[in-house]
Structures are given as C-alpha cells and as structure tokens.
Amino acid sequence: MSFLRGSQTQKIKHPIGTRKGPLEVPAPTEKDWPKDDEEDHVLVDPDEELDSLPQPYRMINKLVNLLFDQSWEIIEERNALREAESSEIQPTVYPPFGEIQLNKMPNCMAVSQDYVFIGGAKGFSIYNLYSAKQIYAWEKLKVDVTSIWATDLGNEILIAPVDEMGIIRLFYFYKEGLYLIKAINEVNTLGPISADPLEMDTNACFKGDIKLSLPVYIMKIKPPKPVTGTTFKSPLEVFAKIKDCYGLGSGQNHFIKDSQWEQQAEIFNASYKKYLDGEWEEEPLSTATFYFLLPSCLFAMPTEVKGPSGMACVLGIHWTRSHNFFLYSLNRTLKDKTDPEGVWPCAAPIAVSQLSCCSSYLVLACEDGVLTLWDLAKGFPLGVAALPQGCFCQSIHFLKYFLVHKGQNMYPEGPVKSQMKCVVLCTDASLHLVEAGGIQGPTISVLVERPVKHLDKTICAVAPVPALPGMVLIFSKNGSVCLMDVAKREIICAFAPPGAFPLEVPWKPVFAVSPDHPCFLLRGDYSHETESTDDAGIQYSVFYFNFEACPLLENISKNCTIPQRDLDNMAFPQALPLEKRCERFLQKSYRKLEKNPEKEQEHWARLQRYSLSLQRENFKK
C-alpha cells in the first residue's frame, strides 16, 4: 500500500496491517495532514497487536501476563510430577509395631540389649524394648538431657547422658539396678567415690557383690599451639638445641623466622585487602573429636605394660580447623609429658572423622572433599578417595561388610579383614557408597543424587541397619523414612507413624536403631490438639518399628549369613584370609599348567636356570 503525493511515493514498512477506526485519506498537502504521534502511524501485525493502554495500565498488564505464565509453568511442573509419581512404583509403607506413650517431650534415645533409654526433661527413663513398660526413671536434674549414649558390656550396660550444661554422668545398669558412678566433667570432692545403688520406682533395691574400680585421672590434653616464628638464627642452632628428632619436619617444628611470618602476612593482606576490609564474623570455638584405639601394628603396647585384651591403649584426637590427627598413648603417668606419640598430617583441615564399631577402620574427611581410609588392624592406609566436585562430607556411617549371594545381601560367617564399606552423606544432601579393599583402591558410587527441584525430599539423616545386610534408613525433610538397599541402589519399603502430623521445618528426626535386634525407634514429632499450654495436656509417642513384622523383610532378617562352605568357593575371594587366597591362587595356576604340558616344561626349565644362576653367585661370594 502506498500514498501518492505528486511525483513522490512514500512506502510503508509493514505492507499488511490494520488500523483502529476508519481509514483516513490524507489531504493533498503536508500542512493539512493530522499531527498524530509517530506510533499511531505504525501498522502492527494482527497476530501481535495489543490494545495500546496508557500507563500504569500497560505495566499492570505485563505483570499480570508474567504472573499467569509463571503460574502456568508451576501447574505444568506439578502435573508432570504427579504423572511421574503415579507411574512410579510406590514403596510399601509399614505402620509401627508398637508405641511408647510419654508425658514429656523425648529429646534423645539409645538402644542396648533389650532396653530403651530415653532422655528428656530433668533426667532420663528406661523402658523394656518389647513390652514398652517403664523400668526406671531418674529425674534429679534441673535441666534437660540433650543426648544419651549406651554401650553393651555383656551382662552390664554403661549409660552416659549429657545435659544442657554439658555435664556428662556415667551410670552402670545391671539386672535392672542403676548405679551413678561419676559426673565426669563436674567438680567433685577429692574423697573416695562409692557406687551406691539407687532405689527404683518399684520400691526394690538391687544389692549385689559387684565392685567397681574408681575413675583414674590419666592426663590433660590441650590443643597444639599455632605455629610461630623461631628465635634460632641458623639450622645448626636448631639441631644443637633439640634433644629428640621426632616430629622434625612434620609441620610443627619447621625453621621459620618471625620476619618470614610477617612478610607472608603482608602479602596476604595486600592480596585480599578488599575482602579483609569488610566485617569479620566471630570465629567459632574449637572442638575436639576423639577415639579410643585398640593395639595394632601402628601403635603396639609396650612389653612392660600388661593389660586385658581389648583394652584401648591410644587416644586419637583432632581439633576444629586442624590438619593433623594426633595419637596419644594412654599408658603413661601424670609426670609424663603430654606430647603425641604420632602425628598424621593431612593436606586440608579435617572436617569429619569416623571410627568403625570394631575399631579396625578409620576415615578422615577433609574440607576439600578428600577421604583418607585407614586399616588400623593391619597398619596401612586403604587408599585416598575424592568425592565428586562440589561435594563435601557431612557425616560418615560404616556398614558391616556384606556380600551379594544368590541375589541377596548376606554377612560372611567368618571375620573379613582389610575390607570396608561406608556411606557418606554430603552437605548437598547427596549420598555416596565408598568401598575399599587391601588389594584394590577405593571406589565411590552415587546412591542418591543431589535434589534440584524437589527440596522437600532432601536427606537430613542416615542410619545403617546392622540386622539387615547392606541396608540403610534414609530420613528426608518431608518426614518420610525409607529403607534402601545400597547394593541394588533401590528403595525397599517405607515406614510412617499412623495418621498425619505437622513437621517442623527443617525436620530433625530423633531415632535409635538397635545394634542387636531388627528394629528401630522413631519419635512422633506431633502433638494432639489441646486447650492447655503446659506439657500436662500433651501426649508424646515413641514408635517401635520391627523389620521382622514386614513381609518384604522377613526372609532378609532371618537368612543373613553366608555358610562357610559357600565362602570356600572362589566366588568370594575377598572374604577369605590372605593365606587361603594365596593357596587358592597357586592351585589355580597349577591347574592351568597341567592343561598345557609345554608351558609346564618351559616353566620348570626357567626355574632350573634361575636356581643355577643363584648357585653360581653364591660360589663367587
């Protein structure tokens, strides 16, 4: 379309278009043309034409359209998720097998033998695992118990609750009789400490002939001082004044002058000045993580020291933001120096560490995502493994070593050496399986990917199940509890309390897994509606889940051990002792030689030549 004006022709950019209102024919001269805005003369494509609204209505129109588009995307995403969930096979959800009702909020739990220890307001209580009957209640504190620990000693149980003030008390539980031994980090009189039995709620008092030895103060360990400059003027002066040479060059006694430290500080401040000018956050307090280690090739007990088998002889410890893992001997007196017997340096600060329940394996996880695996029984490292980029260790959980036999996870009947498996929960909520053996390096495989869209499925806690080989409990932020088979990398089933209950965000589950029985306990994080505001009108529950009551897990919990006759086969060489494996290897090589007589003769001729050469060398000497 064009308008003719004299001998000139004016072309319109958009040949196809419409205008609002009737078509106006311009006057013959330019002076008589209507003086409208330039936008009114632009013809728009009909598909893209929108009503021209004045401000602020145009902006409101854009915001409404944007909100509609975003809402539509959310609707489509939810529909896709709903369709995906409907197409997936949902795991079977099992209800609890039993319930323990409480009048006060339980803060922590522990399971040992057939007893449940629940810490709460002003003390803790003891329940029977199967009958849910309360056996004893010790409530003599002015504050709450925040964590509780219990260990099985055979016929006895040691209990260690920690209150809000950080005070640890050691209790001795024997034949339903409770004894308070000592408050470990609280000022006591210097007089003798007696272990008197405490009267129980059943008005019965256990009186036995047991005798408990008094606690003995061994040593007081302080974190090492930061590395500072030395006053020595030359390396010769260093060697002249140092009496013993151990530790020299390990990162603690380097020959570095004060001027060198000052120079490095100036370079650092100049390089990061724009970051240092901002406000500094308060540095967190340093905490210590320690383990009691048994005698091994790395730290054997002195010959003059005699003690019962299974007694700890070394204290392994590392502090927050420390690169080193220190080893202190427990076979010393107060007059001895508290210098470490050994130092294991790491390239980065140690973030997380974990010792296996049998004290045979140790994992040190550094802040850069590198894991160092140690076989303490044999005295050598199993290897170094690095987590995927961007993954940093949050917690480590050892698995009892298992094998896959006839499609089922099973424990070897005999002891397995230099073989370990553990699951690592990272800070991005991804879960990894770490495996290591004495003859091959460690491997890392992903069990659960990092959640990207559905953050409600983020893993908040992990717990291995000793009664079920290769099984771990996974607790998510949305309140779901699932059982995963790490060998198959699939969810077997799920567990949930009866009814729906509101959860705190983020959910911090309180649970305890029995080390001996196929069961676990879970606190029900909900409260019944009540008009009263005090705890008297609120009922709390601890739910008891039994794996043997689940049809999918009944056979797994009963048949979980590989017979020794199957272990003798070559199908599981990693489960055999080293001597047995060498014998099997030689027998297999000999059978190969028997099938090929020519190679057998060649092999024996080579051995004869080698023996003759050795004899000639001996004659020359």
Structural description of this entry:
With 621 residues, this protein is an alpha+beta fold. Among the domains are: 59-88; 584-620, no CATH class. 17% of the residues lie in helices and 31% in strands. It is built from eight helices and 34 strands. A five-stranded mixed sheet has the order 3-30-29-28-27, with no helix packed on it. Strands 4-33-32-31 form a four-stranded antiparallel sheet, with no helix packed on it. A four-stranded antiparallel sheet has the order 5-6-7-8, with no helix packed on it. A hairpin with a 5-residue loop joins β31 and β32 (519-524). The longest helix has 31 residues, at 57-87. It is globular and about 105 Å long.
* Computed Rg: 36 Å
Structural class of the helices, strands and pairings?
alpha+beta
The rough form would be described as: globular
Distance between the termini: 114 Å
How many beta-strand elements? 34
**Average pLDDT figure:** 77
Estimated share of beta-strand residues: 25-35%
Largest sheet: 5 strands, mixed
Task: List unreliable stretches of 5+ residues.
Answer: 1-18, 189-208, 246-252, 527-533
Strand order of the largest sheet: 3-30-29-28-27
How many individual helices? Answer: 8
- Estimated helix fraction: 10-25%
